[in-house]
Write a structure and sequence with these properties.
Strand order of the largest sheet: 3-2-1-4-5
Shape: elongated
Distance between the termini: 28 Å
Strand content: 15-25%
């Protein structure tokens, strides 16, 4: 069975991180590569990271990108931004790679709300569009960029003056009826035969930068499923995609937008057991896919997660035992995860402690194998930990005087217990 080389571009966004999490343990993936046109959060999502890709409108982008596909032997591309998806879909040569949901006509329609509303004009679920120079039938109205996303630039106009101001200050404005009701995102998957095999509506709660930080699954009623089926029938889709709905004054669902990419909160589907990026790989390999949904997830919660980057090329990790690796008799799960991550990347692990009894016995009692460590340093009462440390290294200890002593070394990154999480990938 051939394993795939998968490229995610650009790779610093929330949905790029979701693709990375979805595929990082897949036995079908040989290399998971992230690429961006600037130094971004993608280096924390992807061990294979390329941060100097030209911007898509640069004259040398096409040649650079094709060369990247060839040299990295890419099989599958996930584009994580609508404009990037349209750009790649329109390229005449992707070196034989498969671009997920990369139909040129579909990506063009989905990128522009004017084209989307025009294609489906007359459908009861398309909002009323106010033509240039026309007077709205009712106020207020919504003015939004034709190529916007995530609610960016959306303006509520209450009268003709506000409408004129919004149109004058916005590039390619689209004016539609005001939709005051609830909002949903519907995550979808279409297989290689054009069959819609998954449509999962979810709520959008506590929105931050256009991303739902809390989301719960919603039963897909006939109205929602009809909209999904009609979109799927009119566009050429294959792989993960989504559309967003909002209720009008009569609680009828109206379309906001369609997108040919993985959504920022498509992680909600994965929490239900539906791994849409992985399904895309199976579909690419010619396999039939079927969602296996768990009924035991009520909702998901998201928050900002912080990563820290150190230029220190550390080779060793030293960690204290009491109240650091083991707290109240139980393993510290974050510290244990960091140790296994460090071991997998070839670092040497050292347990360094003044523990009153044999450290091996205490490790065994906490179900931590002593074999995890390359060295166990059991100090006498007056010995300094700093005298046993070989740099460059990371030193983890909950006791400030120990950290202060070791911090005098310029080749050691000193961490308290709370800071270890910054370095978990």
């Amino acid at each position: 069975m051939k394993k795939l080389n998968v490229l995610v571009f650009p790779c610093g966004s929330e949905n790029a991180g979701e693709i990375a999490q979805s595929l990082r343990y897949s036995l079908h993936v040989n290399r998971l590569i992230g690429a961006s046109s600037c130094d971004d959060h993608g280096r924390f999502h992807f061990a294979d990271y390329i941060g100097d890709v030209p911007f898509i409108h640069a004259p040398d982008f096409d040649a650079y990108f094709r060369d990247l596909l060839i040299t990295q032997q890419i099989d599958v591309i996930f584009a994580t931004h609508d404009t990037v998806c349209e750009k790649l879909a329109g390229m005449t040569d992707l070196a034989g790679c498969y671009l997920v949901n990369g139909d040129p006509h579909t990506t063009q329609i989905a990128r522009r709300k004017s084209l989307t509303y025009g294609l489906f004009a007359g459908a009861p679920w398309v909002p009323a569009v106010v033509a240039q120079g026309a007077e709205p039938e009712s106020w207020p109205v919504i003015v939004k960029p034709d190529c916007g996303q995530g609610g960016n630039g959306v303006t509520l106009a209450h009268d003709a003056r506000e409408l004129a101001e919004a149109r004058a200050t916005m590039d390619m404005p689209v004016v539609v009826e005001y939709l005051p009701g609830k909002e949903l995102t519907v995550d979808c998957f279409t297989n290689r035969d054009g069959k819609l095999v998954w449509a999962g509506p979810r709520t959008r709660e506590r929105i931050r930068a256009g991303i739902a930080m809390r989301s719960q699954p919603v039963v897909a009623d006939d109205e929602i499923m009809t909209i999904a089926a009609e979109i799927n029938a009119r566009l050429t889709l294959r792989g993960p995609w989504f559309f967003q709905l909002k209720q009008d004054r009569n609680q009828r669902w109206k379309l906001l937008e369609i997108s040919c990419r993985v959504a920022g909160t498509m992680i909600a589907a994965r929490a239900l057991g539906v791994n849409l990026p992985l399904m895309a790989l199976h579909d690419y390999m010619g396999r039939d896919v079927s969602p296996l949904v768990t009924p035991h997830v009520a909702y998901i919660e998201r928050s900002i997660k912080t990563r820290a980057f150190t230029p220190l090329n550390y080779q060793h990790v030293y960690i204290d035992l009491d109240d650091t690796l083991i707290i109240n008799g139980q393993p510290n799960p974050v510290a244990v995860a960091f140790l296994y991550q460090s071991r997998a990347s070839g670092k040497t692990l050292h347990l360094i402690t003044r523990h009153e009894s044999l450290p091996v016995n205490t490790l065994n009692q906490a179900a931590i194998s002593p074999l995890l460590f390359d060295e166990i340093i059991h100090l006498q009462e007056n010995e300094k930990k700093s005298s046993h440390i070989t740099g460059p290294a990371i030193f983890i200890d909950n006791y400030f005087p120990e950290r202060l002593d070791v911090a005098q070394r310029d080749d050691v990154l000193v961490l308290d217990v709370d800071a270890v999480d910054f370095y978990i990938k």
